[in-house]
Design goal:
Helix content is about 55%, strand content about 0%. It has about 450 residues and is mainly alpha-helical. It has 4 domains: about 55 residues, no CATH class; about 80 residues, no CATH class; about 110 residues, Hydroxylamine Oxidoreductase, Chain A, domain 2 (Up-down Bundle); about 100 residues. Helix 3 crosses helix 4. The radius of gyration is 30 Å and the shape is globular.
C-alpha cells in the first residue's frame, strides 16, 4: 500500500509540474503577443509600402544604383504613392532657366517652387504672402537686387511695411561672404528668388525626398532656423507647457493624420505647425506663418498687424480646442501689455541715442564701435526674446534671456552715451567724426 501510494504521489506531482510549465509558457506567450501589439511604431516603419519596389522607370533604375537612399526615401512617400514620377518635378525643357542636361533630357537638380505650384497652387500663394518668402531674403540681400516683378510682389506683402532690409542687411554686408553663405543665407534663403522667377525653397521645411507629414509637423524642423539669441522659439517652446507635453508624450501623437482632419485626439497639445499652419478646430490650413499673429514681434518697436483682429480669431480658434474664452482673453490682455512694456524699453534706448545723433557724435559707419552693438542687441536679441517668451509662455526666456538683458543693455547704453556726450562737449577722445548716422542699421529715431 505504501509503495502504491508513493507512486501515485509522484504521478500527481509530475502532472502538476507539467500543468504549471504549460501555464507559464502560455502566460509568457501572451505577454510577448501583447508586447508586440503595443509597439505599432516599430512595426509600421518596417512595413511601409515602397511604391517604387517594382518600378522599371529608367530614372528609378539608374538612381537605384547611384543614389539608392533617395530612391528608398521617395518610394515610401505619399507623392510616389499618388503616382508622381521623378520627372514630374525634375524634368524641364532645354531652354528652362537653370536647366542642366542630364542623360538625354534636361532637369532641375533642385526643383523650384514653380514645380511645386503645379499641384500645390494654394499653398504657394499663401507662402508668397508670408515672412518666409521675399521678406526673409530681403532681410539680408536688400531690395536693390530684386527684379521689378519681385519688387512689386515684395511691396504687396504686409511684412514689407516693417522694412526688414533696414534692420539686417547692413550687418550682412559687413561680414565675410565666405561665412554668410553658411550662416545668414542658410536660413534666409527660404525666400530666395529662383532663376525661373518663382520664390522660395519648399524643401527648407519639407525635406526631400520623403516629404513626410511627421517631419514637417515636428518642432525640430523649425529649430533649424528658429533658434539662438535673436529668435529662440525652439528653446522657449521646450520650456513651455506645450513643449513639455510634446517632449514627454509626443511619441504617442498621430503625426501622419490627414491634413485638415486634426483634432485634440491626434494632438493633445500644439506644436509650431499646429499653432501657425495646420488646420485645427475651426481654423483652416495655411502656409502663411503670420496669418494668425497679432503683432510684428520681430520689429524693434512692435506694432499690430493690419488684420490683427482677424488673425487673433484664427489663432484663438486653435487655442479654444483646449482653453476656455476667459483664459484666452486674460492671456491676450496680459501679453499685449507685456509687448507694450518691451516697446517702451526700446523707445528709451532711442531717447538715449537721440542726442548723439543730433550732435553728430556717432561715426557714419555701422557696427564699428561697441555702442552700435549694444543698441542693436537690446532690441534684436533681448527685446525680441522677451516678446517671444511672453507669447509662447516661456517665463525664463521672458525674464533672464529677455527683460534682464534689456535692462543690462540700457544701463550700458546710458554710460556709453554719457561718455560720448562728455567727450563731444570737450572735444576730447571719443568724439566721433563723419555725418553721424546711427550705426546699428536701424532707421534713426
Amino acid at each position: 500500500m505504501n509503495e502504491g501510494g508513493g507512486s501515485g504521489s509522484i504521478l500527481t506531482a509530475s502532472r502538476l509540474l507539467i500543468i504549471g510549465l504549460v501555464a507559464v509558457i502560455v502566460v509568457l506567450g501572451m505577454a510577448l503577443i501583447i508586447q508586440a501589439i503595443a509597439r505599432p511604431t516599430a512595426a509600421g516603419v518596417e512595413t511601409r509600402v515602397n511604391a517604387l519596389a517594382t518600378s522599371t522607370d529608367e530614372c528609378v533604375a539608374c538612381h537605384r544604383r547611384t543614389t539608392p537612399g533617395i530612391v528608398e526615401q521617395y518610394g515610401v512617400s505619399t507623392m510616389a504613392a499618388a503616382g508622381v514620377a521623378c520627372r514630374d518635378c525634375h524634368e524641364v525643357p532645354a531652354d528652362y532657366p537653370a536647366a542642366v542636361e542630364h542623360e538625354g533630357t534636361h532637369v532641375l537638380p533642385s526643383p523650384t517652387t514653380a514645380m511645386c505650384q503645379k499641384c500645390h497652387g494654394q499653398e504657394v500663394a499663401q507662402f508668397y504672402q508670408s515672412r518666409h518668402s521675399l521678406p526673409a531674403y530681403v532681410a539680408y540681400a536688400g531690395t536693390e537686387v530684386l527684379t521689378p516683378e519681385h519688387l512689386a510682389l515684395y511691396e504687396a506683402i504686409p511684412e514689407a511695411e516693417q522694412g526688414p532690409e533696414q534692420m539686417r542687411s547692413v550687418l550682412f554686408d559687413l561680414e565675410d561672404k565666405r561665412l554668410t553663405r553658411l550662416a545668414c543665407e542658410a536660413c534666409h534663403s527660404i525666400g530666395l528668388p529662383a532663376e525661373d522667377g518663382s520664390v522660395g525653397k519648399c524643401q527648407k521645411c519639407h525635406l526631400r525626398h520623403e516629404f513626410s507629414l511627421e517631419q514637417a509637423r515636428k518642432p525640430e524642423t523649425c529649430n533649424n532656423c528658429h533658434i539662438g539669441p535673436d529668435h529662440p522659439q525652439w528653446e522657449i517652446y521646450q520650456e513651455s507647457p506645450h513643449g513639455i507635453a510634446y517632449m514627454t508624450q509626443g511619441d504617442r501623437w498621430n503625426w501622419e493624420a490627414d491634413a485638415g482632419t486634426l483634432t485634440v485626439n491626434d494632438f493633445p497639445a500644439p506644436t509650431c505647425a499646429i499653432c501657425h499652419m495646420s488646420g485645427f478646430g475651426p481654423t483652416g490650413t495655411t502656409h502663411d506663418v503670420g496669418d494668425r499673429l497679432t503683432w510684428y514681434l520681430f520689429a524693434p518697436i512692435s506694432e499690430r498687424r493690419p488684420a490683427w483682429e482677424d488673425n487673433r480669431v484664427r489663432m484663438q480658434g486653435v487655442c479654444r480646442e483646449c482653453h476656455n474664452a476667459n483664459f484666452l482673453n486674460e492671456f491676450y490682455a496680459a501679453a499685449d501689455e507685456a509687448t507694450e512694456a518691451v516697446n517702451e524699453y526700446v523707445h528709451e534706448s532711442d531717447r538715449i541715442m537721440a542726442p548723439l545723433i543730433e550732435q553728430n557724435l556717432l561715426t557714419a559707419e555701422p557696427f564699428d564701435e561697441p555702442i552700435d552693438f549694444t543698441y542693436f542687441e537690446l532690441w534684436h536679441h533681448w527685446g525680441r526674446t522677451a516678446k517671444f517668451g511672453v507669447w509662447m509662455q516661456g517665463p525664463d526666456y521672458t525674464q533672464w534671456h529677455g527683460v534682464y538683458e534689456v535692462l543690462s543693455d540700457l544701463a550700458e547704453l546710458r554710460e556709453l552715451a554719457e561718455q560720448r556726450l562728455e567727450a563731444g562737449m570737450t572735444g576730447g577722445e571719443g568724439a566721433a567724426s563723419g555725418d553721424g548716422g546711427a550705426g546699428s542699421g536701424r532707421p534713426s529715431p
